[in-house]
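During the no-cost extension, the postdoctoral fellow (Dr. R.K.) reprocessed legacy sequence entries with the updated structure-token encoder. One reprocessed record is reproduced below for audit purposes.
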Amino acid sequence: MNVAKIAVVGTGAMGSGIAQTAAVAGYQVTMTDVIPEALERAQAGIARSVEKLAAKGAISEAQKQAALGIRTAGDLEPVREVDMVIEAATESRMLSNLGRSP
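Re-encoded structure tokens follow.
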């Protein structure tokens, strides 16, 4: 199986870190989360991180731009188009999305 496109479900510290690492490694990445603010925080955190890494010479400008180009979605629709899905959502968020309490 050839993996080129990855979706990361959940954008907390782990999910955004996985998304950043995958994008820097050359994968096309989409992050999904049901909370719009979580997507915004993840994007901002990734931007800060890759800016620091690029300033230190730890990643190239192309890798930085790849991470800054991570797509976001508020639902799971984009998951249909990827080769691999990585789940990093918190249990409480997953359960609340199903109408249950943790």
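The mean pLDDT is 90. Residues 28 and 100 are 33 Å apart (CA to CA). The remaining legacy entries will be reprocessed before the final report is submitted.
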